[in-house]
Structure prediction request, 214 residues.
Amino acid sequence: MKWKSLIRALLFVIVFLVIAWFIRQQFNVTADSIRSFILSFGIYGPLLFMGLYAIGPIVVFPTSILSLAAAFAYGLWPGMLYIVIGATAAGITGYVMGRFFGDSVLKFQESKWSEKIYYRMKERGFLYVFVLRLIPIVGFDILSYLAGVTRVKLRSFIIATVFGMLPGTFAYSLVGTSLASGDRQLIFIALTVFALIFALTFLFRNKVRSWLKI
Prediction:
């Protein structure tokens, strides 16, 4: 992960905040009204979130928005649960696509950046998926495809995905919850936690590459 990736992530949150502030000021849209609209879907609301997440690898939907929206509407822990389920479903979608199309179509082994990962994942799939979810120096969907292509066991893939993405999921959930509260102090804390997690990802990226020998 490079500085550009960290900056893009932070800019995304900042732009989201600016847009939210603008809409609130110009159209008198409050956090309660937005939350009420999402909650009006009832039981179908969480299902909609998770369904959109699941098809993310196919339609390239910006799931970061879904992560913030889930926590915004349902709170920190319920929102985090829906994000984890949805993101895991998205991972499985990518995994199945990798298994279905195979390396003869995706040809990951011909890409310089993924050649070493491709062959090493065949040997230590669970470890690679877990660490690369925790320190995402490889794109979420790309890693899912690779896991499918290299025949990582589905159970191992799911467990590694769930536990590996918990810190990042918590950060998104905290930001979404803070936006819903409107508490400036909580928003500041949430953004600080978000920035720290991404900064740690950047700082440890070289050590991860060295440790995984990629």
The chain has one domain: 3-212.
